[in-house]
Design brief:
Length: 399
């Protein structure tokens, strides 16, 4: 998950130096000499006029004068000048020097952190944001959040969790983005219970956010709580109807859980409005597993209208047979055999149906046909012998 840092490069000093001796300036460094204040003010005026080269010249002349003591504000303002000229490398060096001279100067820490972040140095950025947060008289939670973002981006998840836990503990206004990042951090650390708990707290405040329900489902899946995960996805998809493939994935989850009826309904949504014969077969199988005979047969019949196949007739026949509907099963089996006369299983099953319907002639005929198929020969001959024996016993009884 890529997270963009939100804090811009700060130009705090630019406004602070608009007047040579403002209270803000005095607060920055009460030991500044008049010469230093005057030089910074002149450089600031050039910046305001966008005369960056002149500002750079004023500041570098001061730095190069060995009689002047190095000052963090000079390097900080020089970093701002370089940044405004899009000279990022030079700006980075200047901000770094400002931080060396005064590690507790927050604006320089933030700017150097931001530049480290943009350069992909996420660990260093996180450390600097954390320092900036700690050195402030009035800690800004946004800076601590930025530290968490940087650590997360650098895959330093333990560091990220630590600062974000502090943020959530010390901040009254627990913004959604704070909690979201904490949840993602817990996911990366595979701390599913904590991730779920904080995810539920987010949902409590925003129940109609489909993305939150999807993320909760993802967490619950990883926990192995498939039923709860499926329920979360159902809510998410009601709030924000997904593409067909997502309904198919949810159907597969329901089938894995052994809830075929819900799977069938998800498949109907996945393949709506015009399911293909194969898709109708899939829906029918799910309904069959849920013991919804009428629904399953209806799906197969719709598929047969579009694409009559012996295998499909056989599936319907098996459903009827399993439910003791011998006549209906026999009709489907006859249609199957019309397409594939060599289907040994269809002949065998039709023989059984005929036996149940007391159609001895048809039963003997179909069992004899089934015996021609090597796979079903033994079953067919055994059944035929049993039928013959039954007929003989009945004849003896009648005599």
């Amino acid at each position: 998950m890529r997270i963009k840092t939100l804090l811009p490069v700060i130009f705090f000093l630019l406004s602070a130096l608009a007047l040579q001796c403002t209270p803000t300036m005095a607060a920055q460094d009460v030991t500044m000499s008049y010469v230093l204040r005057s030089m910074l003010a002149r450089a600031q005026r050039e910046v305001e006029k966008k005369s960056y080269k002149r500002a750079e010249k004023i500041l570098t002349e001061y730095i190069n004068d060995k009689s002047n003591k190095p000052n963090y504000l000079v390097y900080y303002l020089l970093g701002n000048v370089f940044y405004l000229e899009n000279r990022k490398k030079d700006a980075y060096k200047a901000y770094r020097e400002a931080c060396k001279l005064n590690p507790s100067y927050q604006p320089a820490c933030i700017n150097l952190a931001k530049m480290n972040y943009d350069a992909g140095k996420y660990g260093e950025a996180g450390d600097l944001f954390l320092r900036a947060y700690r050195c402030s008289g009035e800690p800004d939670p946004e800076i601590l959040y930025e530290a968490g973002v940087a650590y997360f981006q650098g895959k330093l998840y333990r560091n990220a969790k630590k600062v974000l836990a502090t943020l959530l503990k010390e901040t009254k206004d627990k913004k959604e983005k704070y909690v979201r990042l904490f949840v993602h951090t817990c996911i990366e650390l595979k701390e599913w219970d904590t991730a779920e708990r904080y995810m539920l707290s987010l949902i409590e405040k925003n129940r109609i956010n489909a993305s939150y329900w999807k993320l909760l489902a993802r967490i619950r899946l990883r926990k192995g709580d498939y039923r709860a995960a499926a329920g979360s996805l159902e809510v998410a998809y009601r709030l924000d109807p997904p593409e067909a493939g997502r309904w198919k994935e949810l159907a597969e989850l329901y089938l894995y859980m052994g809830v075929p009826l819900k799977a069938a309904r998800c498949l109907e949504k996945a393949y709506a409005p015009y399911p293909s014969p194969r898709q109708l077969d899939e829906i029918a199988r799910a309904y069959a597993r849920a013991n919804r005979l009428k629904k399953a047969v209806s799906c197969y019949e719709n598929a047969l209208k579009k694409e009559p196949k012996e295998a499909r007739y056989l599936e319907v026949a098996k459903l009827y047979y399993q439910n003791g509907m011998w006549k209906e099963a026999a009709e489907m089996l006859k249609k199957c055999i019309q397409i594939d006369r060599a289907n040994g299983f269809a002949h065998l099953l039709l023989g059984y149906c005929a036996w149940q319907l007391n159609d001895v002639g048809l039963a003997m005929k179909e069992l004899s046909e089934a015996s021609k198929c090597k796979r079903y020969r033994h079953q067919a001959l055994t059944a035929r012998d049993m039928l013959k024996e039954t007929i003989t016993c009945c004849d003896r009884h009648q005599q």
